[in-house]
Amino acid sequence: MTDNFLPLIQLGLLSLATGLSLARVDMSSARWSSSNGMFSLQRIFVRFSLAPLVIQTFAFLFIEHCWLSFFALLLAAPTAITGIIVCRSLGALVLPTAYAIVITTVIGALTTLLLLISGGFSNVTGSLIWLGVVSLAGLLIPSLMAQYLRHRYPIETASFVERNPALSILLLTLFVIVSFQTVELKSFWPYGVSASVCAVLLRLLAFALVRRDNIYAVDDYITMSYPNIFFVIALVSNIGAEEAQAYATWFLLPMFALMPIDAWLAQRLVVGHNDTRLHDFLKIAR
């Protein structure tokens, strides 16, 4: 396996895992979802556009530390497809997170575009091309294909994805293994430590932006604290940003290691079973 094929393998694994994950969720009721406060566009804008641009400006004008620029890129990354899996395990409603994956993909791509232009990359044109390729092949095309299959072959698609829920996890596990082929373990200092700090800061920001006492509070938190690090790795691997690639790869460790904290916080955000709003969402007669 050569380094030249690693980005293509990463992109292929990401694309397949995304399609399988989103095929488990029917996102056909977009009009109903948008009219019922399923997600907050203001918070999405602050989290995925304003915050990364502010961090990048701060790093550029005052500090010029690479890890701050990586943190800005991390903030601009769309919501991870693993958010659906995490939401299922924490008692969230899943559907808001699925919608947020698509919405943040568009917003995150625009913000990442600005970050790449202002980040001093030597080959801006090539970086933008790969940004488009990763966005389309890694996120948008799989989501469109997943929804097409759900509508064209609803029984067959639902049967396959429900009987093989571990397949997407296996693909992402292979993604992690492939990604660490280019990173030395001794680089945990400083890249791994800095990535761990970024993971903690990201959760603090996400918790601060959560809509308190809201039926979608857990989805808010998961949406904002689980950036699509797979997207970031696939992007920086293709544009040759070696330091960003090291940060991003090491971020995989704290992202999964901090899940017990996420589970603890989710218990304080999730609404009660007797909440009438939950009955309305699930269309259960009261």
Keywords:
mainly alpha
Structure at a glance:
The protein is mostly helical and 286 residues long. It is built from 15 helices and no strands.
Query: How many strands, what sense, and barrel or not for the largest sheet?
Result: none
Q: Termini, distance in Å?
A: 58 Å
N-to-C series of helices and strands: HHHHHHHHHHHHHHH
> Approximately how much helix is present in the residues?
over 70%
* Rg, Cα atoms, Å: 18 Å
Give the number of DSSP strands: 0
| Mean pLDDT across every amino acid position | 86
Q: Beta-strand level of the residues, as a percent range?
A: under 5%
Number of helices: 15
| Class by SSE composition | mainly alpha
Low-confidence stretches: none
Query: What overall form do the CA principal axes indicate?
Result: globular
Give a verbal description of the structure.
- 75% of the residues lie in helices and 0% in strands.
- The chain has helices at residues 6-22, 30-35, 41-63, 66-76, 82-90, 95-118, 124-152, 154-163, 166-179, 191-209, 217-225, 229-239, 242-257, 259-269, 276-281.
- The chain has 286 residues and is mostly helical.
- The longest helix is centred in the middle third of the chain and has 29 residues, at 124-152.
- The model has no long low-confidence stretch (mean pLDDT 86).
- The termini are far apart.
- The radius of gyration is 18 Å and the shape is globular.
